[in-house]
Structures are given as structure tokens and as C-alpha cells.
Amino acid sequence: MGIRLVYGLKTDDSSYLDSFFPSRRLAEAARSLGLDYGATIHAPEASMDATAAFCRGHVALLRGELPGSLYEHLEDSGIPVVNSALATKTAGDKLRTAERCLVLGIAHPRTFAVGVRDATAPLDFPFVVKPRFGKMGRGVFLVESTSAWLDFLKSDAASSTPYIAQEYVSASHGRDVRFFFAKFRENCAAATPVVVLRRGTGLASNAHAGGVMEPFEPPDFLRAEAEQVFFDSGLVYGTVDFLFANKGGSRFVVCETNACPGFEALEAISGLDVARAILLAAAGAKGTP
Q1: Rounded average pLDDT per 10-residue block, the chain, 289 residues
Q2: Which domains does the chain have, with CATH numbers?
Q3: pTM of structure
């Protein structure tokens, strides 16, 4: 049983996988590990049956913008999927993440679904509005007044995708702590994290929004909370992000989880072979759809 990478991209030109950083690095890592490995693009119009045929007998490693129905189709075909349909759906849903943190007893900013017909602000100003499902830092706004809230409700953004309103944690403006879980230690049965501090010039701190990262040594209690959130998520690899709840960095709240994190910036600043760690985590998930 090998690994078959399936990427959701806005092209069906498979040669793009040779130059696209994540797919190129995963292929290089697979060669270094001697894995039975192949990769394909699942474009929007691609056949799910064809993709299932490509993956059959192997672990499917899914990345990029792919429909949840593809995850489910592969799993219904008996193909182990990393990350699974349920784990990916849950991790990508910021409202669901808030609900899970409440169950786990881990601090999280107050979060509400946005109703475009409800002009009543869901939180005291200022508060943050962002897509309910991950958009790589795009579409995040700080709402500071009633007029700004009404303008947002009338905007194309509010009507085109589900949004949430979230409590603004001012101490963390433009910075957060990311725990990236994968199999960084080959002699360890479970995924382990690499931890970085991310900084941005605006509200969002991720690389797609121009943020930069540096190594970060978390306090023990924060590492324990990150592990609790990650292992509850059912993810094989992924990230857990925390906001600073105070300026001194002694209190934190969970921001979100991610089932398909980018890793170019992490490899650059850490010198780690993150692609290898992802493949090792996927290879260890053979028995789990």
C-alpha cells in the first residue's frame, strides 16, 4: 500500500504538480523515503470514480480545494483518506471548532454565525468577522462601529459565503502561535508538533496574508492544550492556532484548526523536512479511512 496525492487546483495540467511547491516537495520526500507514490490533480470537473480508481489500494492524501463529497466517495470506496472527511470538515469549520473547545473546556473567543438579515450586532464593538470555512486569511475584517457592521451585511462578501462573528482579542492583533502536527519523530507513534510564532502587519498573520514566522517555545500548559485539541480533532496531521489573550503571553485562546496547512514558510524558517513528516503521518494512517 502506497500513497496517492490528490490535489484540488484550478487546472487539470498535471505538469503543474512538478513546480507547485507543496506537491514538488511531497514528491521529493516520497522519493527519499522510497515510497510507492503517485500524484494527480482533481479539477472541478474531474470524475470522482476516476480519482477513486487512481487511489484504490493506497492511502489517499488530499490537499487543496476539494469538495467534501470527494472525501466521502473515496471513503465509501474503501480507500483510507488523510485527513478523513469528518476530521477535515470539522477542522475547517470555525464555528464547529468553537463548539468543540467549549466541550473540551479550552478557552476560545466567543463566536456566532452571521445572519445577513439581522442588523443587530452579535458582539460589542470591535469584533472580527471572517469566513466560517477557511480562506487562508482572506475576507477577515475588524468591525468597529454600527455603520461598518451594516456596510458589511450589505457587501458581496457577506452574501457570497457563510461568515462568523468572533470576539476581538486585541492583545493578539497580528500575531498568533501555530502548532504544526505531523510525524516529525519517526520513533514516535503519534504526531508531534513544531511550534512557531506568526506575525503580520494587519489583522491576519498567516503567510498568504504576508505574515512571517519564527520559532517559539510554548509553555507546557499551552502544549498540553494544543495536543488535546489536535487529538480530539481526529486529524492525522494539521495545525492548531492560538491567539494571545494578554500582552505578556501567559494566557491564550484557541483561534482555529487546519486540516491542510501550507508548509513552505515553516520549512524555510525551521530547516525541517515537513513534507517528509506529513508523508510519514499519512503512511501511518493505513488502517483509518
Answers
A1: 95 94 98 97 93 97 96 98 97 95 97 84 95 79 95 87 94 95 91 95 67 94 98 97 95 96 96 97 70
A2: 3-82 (3.40.50.2300), 90-107+171-283 (3.30.470.20), 111-168 (3.30.1490)
A3: 0.93
